């Protein structure tokens, strides 16, 4: 498939759009499409920025060592009676 919207195909598409929406509504339609595209681009950029900041935040926590983690105490043996409080 070479170029789908080349030559007469483009003109036919433009004429159909003109007939459907009318000449008076085309400028408003073009303006709203431009605003929508601008908002979409801005949101995509914000999502990429959020992903980049989240990636750097998780990379910092992934390098923790075992010294940073508190030791896990073993549960008391139920046969030995009540456990003594630890100071």
Task: Describe what is shown at a glance.
With 87 residues, the protein is mainly alpha-helical.
Account of the 3D structure:
This protein has 87 residues and is mainly alpha-helical. 57% of the residues lie in helices and 0% in strands. It contains two helices and no strands. The model has no long low-confidence stretch (mean pLDDT 76).
Write the layout of secondary structure elements.
Layout: H1 8-21, H2 26-61
Q: Point out poorly predicted stretches.
A: none
Shape: rod-shaped
Structural class: mainly alpha
Name the helix and strand elements from N-terminus to C-terminus, one letter apiece. HH
- Tally the helices: what do you get? 2
Mean pLDDT: 76
**Biggest sheet descriptor:** none
Tally of extended strands? 0
* Residues in helices, as a percent range: 55-70%
**Beta-strand residue percentage:** under 5%
What is the alpha-carbon Rg in Å? 32 Å
Distance between the termini: 79 Å
